[in-house]
Amino acid sequence: MLMGAVIRLRIRQRIAAIAVAALFIGTFFVPPASAAPPPIVPGRLAYPAGGTTAVGVGINAANQNAQLAERIPAQIKPGWKAQPPRCPSAATSEASSISVAGARTVVVDRQYQCTWLSAYNTSTGALLWRHKFHFGQMARTEGSRVYFSHDDPNGGTLLDAYDIATGKLLWSSGHWYGFDKMSVGSGVLVNDHFVIDANTGALKFKLPVSQNHGNTMVAGGKIFSNQSDFVEAFSPTTGQRLWSYKKPARTAGSGNSTPALHNGRLYLSSQYGVGTLVLDPATGKYIRTLPRSEMDIAFDGPIGIFTRRDHNEPDVISAVRLDTGEVYWSRKLGMLDVHPFRMYSSGPVIENGLVWILAAPHDGVGGHLIALDEVTGAVRSTTIQTCAAPLGHIAIAQRRIFTSSNCGVLTYVSRELLPDPGFELGTGGWKAYSTGSLTPVTSPKHEGAKALRVTATSSSPGKTGLAHHSVITNSRQGKPYSASCWVYSTGTNLNLTIRLLEQPQDYSTRIQLASKTITSLPAKSWTKISITGTAARSGERVIPQIYSTNQTTLTGHIVYDNCSVTGG
């Protein structure tokens, strides 16, 4: 029995290794330079415009799949994970819905013959409360409440509202249909054509939809309903139909995908291999047709991330200009044997200039959490989950990535140790070394809104730069530590040194772990300098220093941005 377990483990390890290789055999292409649209500029909006909550199934209320206020880098590491107890005969626990609301994260886990609704501490994963049901699939959060639909033991479907802090049941309503379609906003909950008062659970009215079984979204002060043949808008106050658009047969927007509202346009992706329909949300007027996307689109300003799926082929992820349909780049995922890599039921999610996707060839292989560069489509990182990902939901909020798996919810956090790598909030804990004046600036900058300028305070050469004494205060012997910065010199022939020092807590001695020097920085362009060293002892400080020895008040200054410290 033990030998069989070892063989299975080795087979799984081999499959995982092959999967990584297979994933990147896919095709990558960009349009010819002459046809290229203006460059992509990743959005980085401050909260709340950029969002740091996820209302359920990894999306925000307007279904934009964007978290532009987050700053998680491509390099991540596992955080906490959680799953409820296994019900009798249950082999897996599938996290089918993830909602993040500040300090609380609400997860729905589906198992054989039972479903769990659990609330966890967002930072630690500690269980706050939990309820058990026979069957349910999706929960959404809004303010201080959690809304969850499940089957009624007496027949039919119930919609419950719970206090997100305590898990206390606030009300339960029988006016509901199905388990996987729910939208909340403007004081109402909508499912198909039922509109429920979010405060009381009372039925307000039924929408006079042209067809039942559509997907709805409450956003922009309207209820939008995408049906097989119609798209319609209704008042959330009265239920009055505001406009109706009839889709031509088998054309853009075919099917009943969940609508998305972005920058004054309503997007309806197709489920049948045809284009994406774009309408005016105020009038229902046809605007344009864009390329098809079988998964929900992720939006960032003038671009969208689309997903194309063909029979027995890997998924293709593309960055598309929303006003013209021009393609910036496309990446086709690879194969594992005869199995194509595909995303599951979550569309891409954009944050921090990255496009996050969760893909796998089948449910016997761990999900691949992949970060693509939003500007170029290049693969920035791949993290293989320890469990399979049959549903594949991604939620990004509160400086953490949440994904579903067959063993509950998994989370990931940045490997970054600096509190403010891009100097968006100030100096980020850096101090002048050993002279210099530090000033946050908006130009030049490498990324984001700000950078940090270091100006010499003397006309005589000396060490002018930065040092960080609090980023690593408890070293681990034998572990590697890395530091890097992007730098911009306004003068010519300025040198730059980066080094890692290890010192005890009283700074009585020091060991230089590594050092690197650029003898002459290119003027007026961004250059990255980086270094890695290995800690000699445990329990000490590892101090990154970056400085010039020939910068003076007469030679110009150096601007620093997107610094990084990782390791341990």
Automatic annotation (TrEMBL):
Residues 1-35 form the signal peptide. One of its GO terms (molecular function) is hydrolase activity, acting on glycosyl bonds. It holds the Pfam family PQQ_2. Keywords: Hydrolase, Signal. Residues 161-287 form the Pyrrolo-quinoline quinone repeat domain. Residues 420-548 form the CBM-cenC domain. The keyword Lipid biosynthesis does not apply. PANTHER family: CELL SURFACE PROTEIN, OUTER MEMBRANE PROTEIN ASSEMBLY FACTOR BAMB. This is Uncharacterized protein. It comes from uncultured Arthrobacter sp.
